[in-house]
Amino acid sequence: METLELRVDSLESILGQFIVSTDRSLRRLEREMREFKDEMREFKDEMREFKDEMREFKDEMQEFKDESEKDRKRMNRQWGDIANRLGTVVEDIVAPNIPGIAKRYFHADIDDLMVRRKRRKPKDKKFIREFDIIATWDNFVLLNETKPYARPEYVQDFIQILGEFTEYFPEYENKKIIPVFSTLYLDDNIIQMLTDNNIYAMGMSDDSMDLYNAERVNIFKR
């Protein structure tokens, strides 16, 4: 009987220790869960702040892209304006030299000198083209294309213009066309390309403008 009571007391002691230990564990778990929840809450707040910062960063990047695009377009317009002004300056240099070139190389006194002449195609009014310089005398028409600098594609464009010229000016269909491509400087490759297509190359000489390939072009071959 005494042994049974000792066992009961022992079980009660063990059970009590278990309850105390379990209570402590539960309290510790509860505390850790609260701490975990607090940490998760802080993490969520930090994530929310991070998302807000990222949203602000994206907005700033979009503003930067938009501003950069505006700057690019503005620079393109400015470069285009500069190129147009430069082209006009070169045309203003070329135009006064045309009568002298016509006199020196073609023994001509120009009857009509047209600068930046715009003309609508008579048979198709939706097409309009500007011709840099047109000079006429007797049975000849000098057609000049002026560029601020020379490129092969500009020469190709001029060749196309020559093929379409009388579509815009049918009254010159029976006249001899003298084609002149003008710029301030022409390298040997461009001069050769112009010569191969029987086009005069005009550029700066010592004190004025001159034809670089006059002895190699024969308009009567055209």
Model description:
The chain is α/β, with parallel strands linked by helices and 222 residues long. The chain has a domain at 95-221: 3-Layer(aba) Sandwich (Trna Endonuclease, Chain: A, domain 1), CATH 3.40.1350.10. Helix content is 58%, strand content 18%. A 6-stranded mixed beta sheet has the order 1-2-3-4-5-6, with helices on both faces. A hairpin with a 7-residue loop joins strand 1 (112-120) and strand 2. The longest helix is centred in the first third of the chain and has 93 residues, at 2-94. Residues 79-84 have low confidence and may be disordered.
First-last Cα distance: 140 Å
Cross-sheet strand order for the largest sheet: 1-2-3-4-5-6
Rounded mean pLDDT is 84
Under CATH at level 1, the class of the domain at 95-221 stands as Alpha Beta
Order of helices and strands: HHEEEHEHEE
**What general form does the structure show?**
rod-shaped
Give a quick account of the main beta sheet: strands, pairing sense, barrel closure: 6 strands, mixed
Q: Give the helix/strand class.
A: alpha/beta
Distinct helical segment count:
4
Helix percent band: 55-70%
